[in-house]
């Protein structure tokens, strides 16, 4: 079992973070993760979009709270185990749910063979797992004595729900690879021509497997590239960064960044923590 302790001292004190990539699910799952530590001082944080579908299991308490982006005083509560669809904007998390938590990050299209519905039905939404699969995954994981055992139980749980008769259309992983290779700067019209199918058909199968439209996914891939470059530690003028990431100009770059993060790049660098897709909000 390949386990990595990737944590450095950040928002949590005495915290641990492990990642595990199960070989049996390599075609579908990017990695499992486990996090445990003290609650941070801030009560909310933004989880920035990366185009992925994920499972999140709160082991500390049987609830997950998400705040309304436009009205943070309002919130929705779910069970402690949720499936989060692909998002095209940030989630506003209650950090009280982050003291002890496990998760699964699916590869693009990797969640589809485990579900009975197309992924676009849960785009930009979160659903409780008890309404999806019935069995209480959270209790199954809590009964394990170590995080290694929890990873093993989670792996068996997913294998039992894998529907190999529901494969993803081969055009989707091909398209995702091309989009990632070009960091989102890929004309969809040219891609569709390479695939030899109509744009309408391509958009349909892409949304079924990924959850969001191809152009939106490309924009998120490009946004993630900008986060990577911003957090590498080198000082680069925003105008140059915009060109490196395929934006028309600095204004286009900042506008797109604000759409995804509701922050300017400079505000993001001031507020971000150790993990680039998590941004603390003031207490």
TrEMBL record:
Key word Membrane present: yes
Q: Does the keyword Amino-acid biosynthesis apply?
A: no
TM region positions: 12-35
Q: Which GO terms describe its molecular function?
A: DNA-binding transcription factor activity; sequence-specific DNA binding
| Region forming the signal peptide | none
| UniProt KW keywords | DNA-binding, Membrane, Transcription, Transcription regulation, Transmembrane, Transmembrane helix
Taxonomically, the superkingdom here is Bacteria
What residue stretches are annotated with the HTH araC/xylS-type domain? 169-271
UniProt-listed Pfam families: DUF6597, HTH_18
Entry protein name: HTH araC/xylS-type domain-containing protein
């Amino acid at each position: 079992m390949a386990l990595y302790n990737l944590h450095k001292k950040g928002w949590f004190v005495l915290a641990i973070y492990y990642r595990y990539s199960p070989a049996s699910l390599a075609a579908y799952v990017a990695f499992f993760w486990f996090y445990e530590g003290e609650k941070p001082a801030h009560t909310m944080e933004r989880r920035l979009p990366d185009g992925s579908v994920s499972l999140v299991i709160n082991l500390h308490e049987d609830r997950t709270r998400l705040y309304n982006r436009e009205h943070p005083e309002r919130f929705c509560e779910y069970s402690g185990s949720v499936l989060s669809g692909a998002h095209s904007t940030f989630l506003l998390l209650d950090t009280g749910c982050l003291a002890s938590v496990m998760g699964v990050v699916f590869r693009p299209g990797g969640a589809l063979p485990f579900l009975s519905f197309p992924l676009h039905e849960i785009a930009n939404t979160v659903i409780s797992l008890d309404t999806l699969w019935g069995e209480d995954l959270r209790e199954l994981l809590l009964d394990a004595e170590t995080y290694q055992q929890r990873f093993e139980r989670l792996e068996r749980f997913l294998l039992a729900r894998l529907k190999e008769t529901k494969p993803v259309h081969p055009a989707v992983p091909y398209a995702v690879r091309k989009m990632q290779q070009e960091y989102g700067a890929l004309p969809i019209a040219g891609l569709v021509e390479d695939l030899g199918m109509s744009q309408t058909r391509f958009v349909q199968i892409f949304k079924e497997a990924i959850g969001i439209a191809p152009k939106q996914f490309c924009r998120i891939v490009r946004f993630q590239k900008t986060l990577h470059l911003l957090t590498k530690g080198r000082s680069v003028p925003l105008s140059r960064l915009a060109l490196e990431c395929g934006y028309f100009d600095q204004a286009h770059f900042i506008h797109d960044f604000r759409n995804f993060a509701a922050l300017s790049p400079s505000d993001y660098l001031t507020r971000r923590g150790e993990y680039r897709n998590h941004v603390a909000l003031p207490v």
